[in-house]
Design goal:
Structural class: alpha/beta
Mean pLDDT: 95
Distance between the termini: 18 Å
Radius of gyration: 13 Å
Low-confidence stretches: none
Number of domains: 1
Strand order of the largest sheet: 2-1-3-4-5
Number of strands: 5
Shape: globular
Largest sheet: 5 strands, parallel
Number of helices: 5
Helix content: 40-55%
Length: about 120
């Protein structure tokens, strides 16, 4: 089973979050690091699939719609984690690390998770 690798889209990218996750051993990259700034949500999701990374975004409505479209069309994606804005960097880090500790990359395929469900979740 492969460890979850994260891809932070433009909206969810924060230098502090990237540093917090990286310093705790998470495999994480951002849209800026992937040279994907300004690309469509569809392109972001396709990039994440190609690179086998779970995308993390605040763009709940659009990415949930993309997930539903993928299911209908039988088109795979590596997984999506959606969140509302307003969580602290610490909360986001805890939630993402908790998810990565309890789910594999294979288990995340073609699924959507909501960060709020993982922030204070016990193992």
């Amino acid at each position: 089973m492969t460890t979850v690798r994260f891809y932070l889209d433009e909206d969810a990218t924060s230098r502090r979050l990237l540093q917090a996750l990286t310093s705790r051993g998470a495999d994480v990259t951002s849209a800026a690091e992937a040279d994907m700034l300004g690309q469509s949500d569809e392109s972001q999701l396709a990039w994440a699939w190609t690179h086998q990374r779970v995308i993390y975004s605040f763009n709940v409505r659009d990415f949930y719609r993309l997930h539903s479209d993928c299911l209908v069309m039988g088109k795979p994606h590596a997984g999506i984690v959606l969140s509302r804005q307003g969580y602290s960097v610490g909360d986001q880090m805890r939630g993402l690390l908790q998810l990565a500790a309890m789910r594999s990359l294979e288990e995340m395929a073609n699924t959507v998770e909501f960060l709020g469900a993982w922030i204070n979740r016990l193992p």
